[in-house]
């Protein structure tokens, strides 16, 4: 009886996996079809709808989240590959006292219009600022032997994987620049303490 109800259960079990992901600091366990993307897992199984499905091809960046601290496009990653790993979505960026400094800067600089891309922009900017603090160069970094200076050109290059159909780019750059400026004194203090 191929294709009967008994085989359907067996087939589903063979093509699904139990996955445990730490999402925004909480351990979440779900059973998923092995073909389910991280984006669909977040939105449809964990009710975290901040990451948006824009293009579903990794081209727009609306679905950007942080995976083990690095920015990724969640529509391109199968959820089974992140078993045991840590994911931060836009819902996890705020702290106990409210908006993170980056989120507050986005509001202050009106760095969004329709807001559809904003969760991905925020996660990407957070990941990008962490990359800069670790000294990672970009394609436009002029001197690889000195500390990366976060110019507007650097910000635009590093955020190029996140599209904004409303073209709020100047405001996004201003918000990221302000946040980076606020982080710099703390980064200098950490560098001094480690020397």
Automatic annotation (TrEMBL):
One Pfam family recorded for the sequence: Fer2_2
Designated name of the protein: Xanthine dehydrogenase YagT iron-sulfur-binding subunit
TM segment ranges: none
Gene3D superfamilies xrefs: 3.10.20.30, [2Fe-2S]-binding domain
Pathway the protein acts in: Alkaloid degradation; nicotine degradation
2Fe-2S ferredoxin-type domain sequence ranges: 17-93
Keyword annotations of the record: 2Fe-2S, Iron, Iron-sulfur, Metal-binding, Oxidoreductase
PANTHER family: OXIDOREDUCTASE, IRON-SULPHUR BINDING SUBUNIT-RELATED-RELATED
CDD domains the UniProt entry points to: fer2
UniProt GO molecular function: 2 iron, 2 sulfur cluster binding; metal ion binding; oxidoreductase activity, acting on the aldehyde or oxo group of donors
PROSITE patterns assigned to the protein according to its UniProt record, in alphabetical order: 2FE2S_FER_1, 2FE2S_FER_2
């Amino acid at each position: 009886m191929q294709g009967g109800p008994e085989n359907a259960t067996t087939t589903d079990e063979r093509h699904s996996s139990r996955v445990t992901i730490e999402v925004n600091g909480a351990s979440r366990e779900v059973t998923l079809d092995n073909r389910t993307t991280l984006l669909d897992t977040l939105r449809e199984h964990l009710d975290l709808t901040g990451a948006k499905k824009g293009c579903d091809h990794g081209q727009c960046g609306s679905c950007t989240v942080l995976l083990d601290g690095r920015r990724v496009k969640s529509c391109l990653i199968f959820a089974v590959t992140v078993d045991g790993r840590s994911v931060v979505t836009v819902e996890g960026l705020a702290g106990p006292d409210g908006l993170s400094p980056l989120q507050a800067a986005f509001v202050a600089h009106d760095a969004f219009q329709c807001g559809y891309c904003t969760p991905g922009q925020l996660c990407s900017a957070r990941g990008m600022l962490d990359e800069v603090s670790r000294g990672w160069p970009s394609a436009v970094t002029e001197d690889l032997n000195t500390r990366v200076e976060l110019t507007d050109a650097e910000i635009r290059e590093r955020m190029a994987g996140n599209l904004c159909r409303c073209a709020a780019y100047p405001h996004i750059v201003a918000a990221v620049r302000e946040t980076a400026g606020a982080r710099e004194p703390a980064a200098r203090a950490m560098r001094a303490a480690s020397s």
